[in-house]
Write a structure and sequence with these properties.
Order of helices and strands: HHEEHHEHHEHEEHE
Helix content: 25-40%
Distance between the termini: 43 Å
Number of helices: 8
Structural class: alpha/beta
Shape: globular
CATH topology of the largest domain: Rossmann fold
CATH class of the largest domain: Alpha Beta
Largest sheet: 5 strands, parallel
Radius of gyration: 17 Å
Number of strands: 7
Number of domains: 2
Amino acid sequence: MTKRSVLDIIYPPRCVFCREFLKDGESAVCAECMRELPWTYSRCEVPVANCARCVAPLEYRDNAAQALLRFKFGGRVTYARCFAELVAECLRGHTDMDFDLVTWVPLAPLRYVKRGYSQSKLLASALARELGLPKARLLVKKLDTQKQSGMSGAAARRANVSGAFGPVGKGMRGKKILLVDDVVTTGATLSECALVLRVAGAAKVTAAALCTAHKANRRIGRE
């Protein structure tokens, strides 16, 4: 019996989203969640300034939102691989897949120390492995801004992150970059990061996130 088999007996694997025990043949996500999660389908694209495209496979609600919160604040770092697979599938279906490298939206240093990890970096690293691309730290957060989730309105969110990020090194010059974050709402953070990358010489920036809370992506009916 393998070590993995022993662990599965002691700690039976659960669905990343609903936390129910997985059945034989299921991996990371149970069959019911694969059917019932709030998929964005053809509405996966989010309008984000300075980005060629921005996509997210899930709406930020219900089990998708709860799973992302566990990943972001609850230390469930192993979720990164499952989330990366979902984001990769969305990218393959809705972008030209023309990327040179993967980077991520950074946390402010104090927030990183407090949390102990960067969820966006974990997702970007897993996504880079999934897509067979190199990853690189290209951005730094210079200002410890207010949490975007506490801001009301797109204008306030844009003002909150204006000038908050800076480039690191020269690895983005002439490159087509895939920029990763966990969730996109108004797109203010991704837009600001993409602007920094473009000013620093990036040829193109495409963005991706696991979830979108953008109003235009709210699903009315299943497609």
